[in-house]
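Please describe the entry underneath.
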Amino acid sequence: MAHPDDVDFGAAGTVAGWTDRGIDVVYLVVTDGDAGGFDDGITRAEMAALRRDEQRAAAKYVGVSDIRFLGRPDGRVEATLDLRREIARVIRQVRPDRVLMPSPERNYERIYPSHPDHRAVGSAALDAVYPDARNPYAFPELLAEEDLGAWTVREVWISGSPAAGLNHFVDVTDRFERKLSALRAHASQTAQMGEGLPRMLRGWMSGNAAAAGLPEGRLAESFQVVDTA
């Protein structure tokens, strides 16, 4: 994901379900979120350190302990070859079956998922999955210098896609409070929202549940799942 809190807004309930079933989950966060927050009295370096700590705290609510940061400047991410290499490196280190990422598409129906950093990370991550990580001749230095052989990711889950692309919904009603706790751990970003935060989440997630045909009162997270095997 691009920033601390992105995975929690988009998929914390789903992640909690994975870890509950014994699935190992690793977070890769491209920036430290140093351009976030609302406190003019804190330096950007202090904000970056705070947001790393907040992401670590949030991850505990959903059973994740392996969190990696690339430390790129918040708000200035581009889908460069160098970023593709960094993401492909982690894919080859972790060797995941599934990669969750932000959508590289602009969502005109709901603009918030379409932060430029989100789209850049989504584009670079998708390219890192296919073709970079699986191609033994892409970034040969990863093999020669770090002994990181090629790895094929079987599927990609995209968060924040336009509605027309959504094809998978996860009922997370029973894990809503864990998702909310994870988001409240990002206090520098969410504390000022107060009780507006759960109301906003329930609004989004009940809409997802309705789109999935779930009964009234259920809450869901939505994804575009792509077969990349």
